[in-house]
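Fill in residues.
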């Protein structure tokens, strides 16, 4: 499912790139003497407000805004989740700046305008906040759910039961201790008896035996 969604989004990005190239890189010989490069932010916007009619100004500014909206809808699917909004904004600004540079250098009747880059980037942010953030969040939530559920389904290792001494083992240990005590008592008694015999053998013979020898 994830591969299908990415394929659809990639196809949409390709179609949008073709339309973008057709709209922005088509020569306009009739306006060659009218357009000039603009490197000062806000200059063209001020010109729209002062020299253009309301409908013409809305068409010019609104067209640049709408041109950036697909970036905010499609790029979040390919951008890492961390700092997604900032990365989407930077990618849109870089892409549209490249387009404007190509316009000013290679396309007849078109010029580089920094206000167009600003409007395109604002359109990308608008598309991201209105719809792109929600769609990409649901997509990542749906794709991450099977992996997390698979990890939860893994059986946890069961701890081994502790062995408790049985009554027979306890009785055996008690009998062994009693036997050891009895053996120790017998040894102590035998040692005392041997000591008494040795003392008796070492005692002096009676005086009568000595007189008989004499």
């Amino acid at each position: 499912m994830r591969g299908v969604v990415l394929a659809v989004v990639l196809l949409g990005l390709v179609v949008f790139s073709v339309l973008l190239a057709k709209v922005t890189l088509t020569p306009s010989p009739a306006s060659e003497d009218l357009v000039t490069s603009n490197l000062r932010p806000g200059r063209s916007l001020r010109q729209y407000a002062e020299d253009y009619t309301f409908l013409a100004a809305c068409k010019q500014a609104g067209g640049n805004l709408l041109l950036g909206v697909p970036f905010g809808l499609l790029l979040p699917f390919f951008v890492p989740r961390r700092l997604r909004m900032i990365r989407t904004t930077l990618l849109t600004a870089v892409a549209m700046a490249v387009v404007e540079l190509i316009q000013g250098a290679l396309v007849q009747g078109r010029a580089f305008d920094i206000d167009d880059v600003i409007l395109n980037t604002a359109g990308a942010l608008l598309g991201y906040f209105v719809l792109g953030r929600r769609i990409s969040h649901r997509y990542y939530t749906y794709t991450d759910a099977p992996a997390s559920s698979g990890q939860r389904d893994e059986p946890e290792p069961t701890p081994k039961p502790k062995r408790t001494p049985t009554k027979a083992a306890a009785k055996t240990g008690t009998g062994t201790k009693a036997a050891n005590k009895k053996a120790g008592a017998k040894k102590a008694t035998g040692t005392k008896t041997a000591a008494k015999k040795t003392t008796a053998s070492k005692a002096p013979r009676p005086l009568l035996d000595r007189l008989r020898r004499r």
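The longest helix spans residues 114-153.
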